[in-house]
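Translate structure to sequence.
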């Protein structure tokens, strides 16, 4: 009954969500984790997006999405004023810092509208935020400390934000681990590893995973890469002669979740991750997951997660998995859309 009362109370609050990452015609996977957070808060959320891409403006119901790659700040401010007049929000919920948000926050302060901010950006992690210097760091400090609540997706990210803005009011709200589609399982003739993520060698390190995989007996296993990105063509060139390696390219999150149960294990060996959604999605699909203990989601790891901190450990974990049957499913009930949506709604309650 308490859950119902809370939900009913918050349905009367008008929230305007402002995003820089969101699925769009150029990239259907862009900011899918942001969209899941937003959709968990209301059936028809009000969303205003400024995406760093070029596409025709999308206006569908309560969603307005600009392909804002060449959009100046004055045009963005005009769009903000239009959205404020249309929605008349009780609060604004920003998702992922951008310099424009500092300007927007000043407008909201002048109107007496509180703002909440969710953060996913790895640039704010403790190991990365030393690169934020000068006026940029000062603007972020003012922005974060001026928020009614700041909602990072992991304790590691919260530590990094507090290094930039020590007075920020922090509440950790994890990412949502969505439901897995088990409707059409496919059996591979050999055990299949998969890697889900943007193809950026310097961060996601698909090239290192590829080198590790090549140490395994090729007749016993396959490797599948899902995702697009700046190094996609390099990855395709590196694997064009490998019969047991498939580069699928960019796919929607729905397609990835549909494909996950087909595999035996997932590998996430990034240099860093603010959360590490793919590891937990793999476990929810019943796969083995190879991950790193420094990732933001590592506290949720179970017996189906194997740690690998260097290439030698990665090869060892992959070899071990070849000898094992699947470990079973972890449902991560606390990371469902309903559970995370309620956490966000409680933050709204505290502000309003």
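Result:
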């Amino acid at each position: 009954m308490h859950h119902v009362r809370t939900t009913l109370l918050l349905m009367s609050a008008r929230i305007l969500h402002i995003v820089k990452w969101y699925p769009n015609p150029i990239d259907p996977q862009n900011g899918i984790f942001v969209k899941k957070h937003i959709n968990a808060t209301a059936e028809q959320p009000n969303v205003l997006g400024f995406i760093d891409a070029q596409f025709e403006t999308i206006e569908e119901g309560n969603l307005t999405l600009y392909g804002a790659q060449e959009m100046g700040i004055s045009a963005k401010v005009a769009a903000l004023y239009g959205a404020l007049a249309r929605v008349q929000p009780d609060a604004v919920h920003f998702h992922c810092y951008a310099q424009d948000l500092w300007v927007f926050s000043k407008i909201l302060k002048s109107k007496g509208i509180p703002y909440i901010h969710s953060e996913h950006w790895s640039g704010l992690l403790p190991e990365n935020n030393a690169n934020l210097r000068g006026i940029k760091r000062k603007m972020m400090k003012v922005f974060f400390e001026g928020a009614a609540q700041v909602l990072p997706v992991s304790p590691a990210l919260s530590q990094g934000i507090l290094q930039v803005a020590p007075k920020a009011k922090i509440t950790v709200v994890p990412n949502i681990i969505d439901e897995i589609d088990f409707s059409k399982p496919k059996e591979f003739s050999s055990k299949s590893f998969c890697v889900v993520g943007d193809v950026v060698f310097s961060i996601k390190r698909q090239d290192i995973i590829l080198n590790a995989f090549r140490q395994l007996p090729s007749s016993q296993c396959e490797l599948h890469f899902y995702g697009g990105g700046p190094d996609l063509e390099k990855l395709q060139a590196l694997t064009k002669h490998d019969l047991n390696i498939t580069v699928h390219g960019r796919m929607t999150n729905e397609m990835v979740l549909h494909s996950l149960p087909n595999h035996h294990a997932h590998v996430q060996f990034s240099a860093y991750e603010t959360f590490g959604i793919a590891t937990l999605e793999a476990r929810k699909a019943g796969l083995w997951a190879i991950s790193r203990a420094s990732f933001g989601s590592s506290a949720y790891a179970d017996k189906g997660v194997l740690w690998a901190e260097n290439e030698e450990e990665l090869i060892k974990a992959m070899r071990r998995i070849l000898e094992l049957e699947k470990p079973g499913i972890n449902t991560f009930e606390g990371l469902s859309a309903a559970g995370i949506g309620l956490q966000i709604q409680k933050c709204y309650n505290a502000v309003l």
